[in-house]
Specification:
mainly alpha, two-stranded parallel ribbon, about 30% helix, globular
């Protein structure tokens, strides 16, 4: 289930190892500044050259490239 949360909720969990914050922006924007402990998972890499979502078999490699397992 997806839920929108406010900044205070996020701030309370920045150091919680059980909470994963994903930053979907391009790497250069992520490097300019991001939330503490956020992982960069650029959403544009989930699509092929024709802007179709990658097949499910390719998604683990995309996620793994961000250091997630």
């Amino acid at each position: 289930m997806t839920a929108l949360v406010d900044a205070a909720w996020v701030a309370e969990r920045l150091d919680n190892p059980g909470c994963l914050i994903v930053d979907p922006r391009r790497p250069m924007k992520y490097l300019r500044g991001h939330l503490k402990n956020a992982v960069n998972l650029p959403v544009f890499k989930a699509f092929d050259d024709e802007l179709r979502l990658l097949p499910p078999s390719s998604l683990p490699a995309w996620i793994g490239a961000a250091g997630l397992d």
